[in-house]
């Protein structure tokens, strides 16, 4: 018993020492409130997600029905908006790490999101901020430049909000627990579970209740509810201010990355070192947080950044370079190599997301032109069909974790059952299968619309097919299953393979994938529309006159290429710390 008590006391002392070091030597140790701060942080998370997701989930329908935009223009605009919203966290992560700190970044971003939602609600509530209503068959007036200006201003504030909230919210919650104690570590793990639970719950509520109000009650009320929830999120966040641990910005890891490239470029004329262990600058590793990386033989050109070209390169004592832009350590070089090795695998995610983003654009348009009745009176809102993908994802995770992983362990001999790269590959394959299913179902929907009596006309002028929109559920379930495999393993892959002090980059990389996937989807929509527009336009305003099924077949073909490309990247990839020189 005495030995255990001494060990526990030693752990506490070590924890206090680390806290003092983290706070700058003699400053008082951080006071962690852990779960006491969680009602404010998780409450803020829940209402913020309900607000932002409730605002964005039905935007395609809002743009086509209220702002009278052509479906192809609305889809392109939405792809661009989603892409920018997902790309902005990279800038947010940099500013947060280097200058602002996570608390200030979240505070600014939360207020920006609230302003953006308020402006968007006003475009629906104020008659002068949107085009006049028009009935079926009437010529609809287009939005004025002033109306579009207010709409785009609301989008700009929403992008600013996502830049701070997306990269900072999860790490800020984890900051509230002491990472040097067992209870703190358990708290961090539990927080991540709660974070994912609130995220999926908010998505489900947004895709059902809020979208139903927007589509069937009124747009001002449907957009006003998320705005009110975002106001509540801001109030909760600021109420907890006195309890929060605020980690001081330590400078961005991007600086270290740039230094390696700059030093390697300056020394490009030097010969490669014969013995890296002897010839490269490799001072003693002092960080208790970042894992020491051994030298690897990939990307040898970067090794030149660590070559000591003269006695003036190193300070007295030999532990630090005199100029970090001329000499870098082996550790710095290997951290950059880790990032470069990830890039090919990461790039497969861009193509993967082209399939995923269709559920928020053309799947919604297909649902609008099919029979959405459930029973005699209830009609499923078109944008709510994304809930089936979320449902598959939510149901699959516990089934995989509790039932399949134990069995797969016995087969593969690996603790995780399937490796992270295997799971990503399965996700890419399933997304391609989902696109094939989408093409077959869309062909059937269009055939029924052209050969059988229709059920009326949409506001945009397209005839409604008698085919039940529930036929689209299987393809969405498969797409949700592909996300459960690919998206989660992708984030875990970045988290484990990127050096510990660069983990803010890990979350940003996943959002960057989503951003570029949206941009690529928008680019494909534009190219297809311009190429086929003169004749049989695949992406016609009325889907019954177009060939959306051929667009889906094209994405499936790109998906097959992506599977082959991913297999090559996965075979080439070398995991962090493996096969060192």
UniProtKB/TrEMBL annotation:
InterPro entries: MFS_trans_sf (IPR036259), POT_fam (IPR000109)
Alphabetical UniProt keywords: Membrane, Transmembrane, Transmembrane helix
Main location: membrane
UniProt subcellular location: Membrane
Entry membrane topology: Multi-pass membrane protein
Listed Pfam families: PTR2
TM annotation in the entry: 103-126, 146-165, 194-213, 219-239, 380-400, 507-530, 550-568
GO CC, any one term: membrane
Biased composition (Basic and acidic residues): 9-21
GO molecular function terms noted in the UniProt entry: transmembrane transporter activity
Region (Disordered): 1-21
Family per similarity comment: Belongs to the major facilitator superfamily. Proton-dependent oligopeptide transporter (POT/PTR) (TC 2.A.17) family.
The protein's name: Nitrate transporter
Protein species of origin: Oryza glaberrima (African rice)
């Amino acid at each position: 018993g005495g030995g255990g008590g001494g060990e526990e006391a030693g752990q506490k002392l070590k924890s206090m020492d680390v806290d003092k070091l983290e706070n700058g030597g003699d400053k008082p140790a951080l006071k962690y409130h852990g779960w006491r701060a969680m009602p404010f942080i998780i409450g803020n998370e829940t209402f913020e997600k309900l607000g932002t997701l409730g605002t964005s989930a039905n935007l395609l329908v809002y743009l086509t029905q209220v702002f009278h935009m052509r479906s192809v223009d609305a889809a392109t605009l939405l792809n661009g908006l989603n892409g920018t919203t997902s790309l902005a966290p990279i800038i947010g992560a940099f500013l947060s790490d280097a200058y602002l700190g996570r608390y200030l970044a979240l505070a600014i971003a939360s207020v920006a999101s609230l302003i953006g939602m308020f402006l968007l609600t006003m475009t629906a509530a104020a008659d002068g901020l949107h085009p006049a209503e028009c009935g079926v068959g009437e010529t609809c007036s287009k939005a004025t430049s002033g109306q579009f200006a207010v709409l785009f201003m609301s989008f700009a504030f929403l992008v600013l909000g996502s830049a701070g909230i997306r990269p900072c919210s999860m790490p800020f919650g984890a900051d509230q627990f002491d990472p040097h104690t067992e209870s703190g570590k358990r708290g961090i793990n539990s927080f991540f579970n709660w974070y994912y639970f609130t995220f999926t719950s908010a998505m489900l509520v947004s895709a059902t209740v809020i979208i139903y109000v927007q589509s069937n009650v009124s747009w001002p009320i449907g957009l006003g509810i998320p705005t009110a929830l975002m106001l509540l999120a801001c109030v909760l966040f600021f109420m907890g201010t006195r309890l929060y641990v605020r980690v001081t910005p330590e400078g961005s890891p991007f600086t270290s990355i740039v230094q390696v490239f700059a030093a390697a470029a300056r020394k490009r004329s030097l010969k490669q070192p014969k013995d890296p262990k002897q010839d490269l600058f490799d001072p003693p590793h002092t960080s208790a947080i970042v894992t020491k990386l051994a030298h690897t033989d990939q990307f040898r050109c970067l090794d030149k950044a660590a070559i000591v070209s003269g006695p003036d390169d190193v300070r007295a004592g030999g532990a630090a370079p005199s100029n970090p832009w001329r000499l870098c350590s082996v550790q710095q070089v290997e951290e950059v190599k880790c990032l470069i090795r990830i890039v090919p695998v990461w790039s497969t995610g861009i193509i993967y997301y082209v399939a995923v983003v269709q559920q928020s654009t053309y799947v919604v348009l297909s649902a609008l032109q099919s029979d959405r009745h459930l029973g005699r009176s209830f009609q499923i809102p078109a944008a709510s069909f994304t809930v089936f993908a979320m449902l598959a994802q939510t149901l699959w995770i516990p089934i995989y974790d509790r039932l399949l992983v134990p069995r797969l362990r016995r087969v593969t001999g690996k603790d995780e059952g399937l490796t992270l790269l295997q799971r990503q590959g399965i996700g890419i394959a399933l997304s391609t299968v989902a696109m094939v299913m989408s093409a077959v179902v869309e062909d059937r929907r269009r055939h029924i619309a052209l050969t059988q009596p229709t059920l009326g006309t949409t506001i945009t002028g397209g005839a409604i097919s008698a085919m039940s929109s529930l036929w689209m559920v299987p393809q969405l379930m498969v797409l949700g299953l592909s996300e459960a495999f690919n998206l989660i393993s992708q984030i875990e892959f970045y988290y484990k393979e990127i050096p510990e002090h660069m983990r803010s980059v890990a979350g940003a990389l996943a959002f960057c994938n989503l951003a570029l996937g949206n941009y690529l989807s928008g680019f494909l929509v534009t190219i297809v529309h311009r190429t086929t527009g003169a004749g049989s336009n695949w992406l016609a305003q009325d889907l019954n006159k177009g060939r959306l099924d051929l667009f889906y077949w094209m994405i499936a073909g790109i998906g097959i290429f992506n599977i082959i490309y991913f297999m090559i990247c996965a075979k080439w990839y070398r995991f962090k710390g493996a096969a060192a020189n």
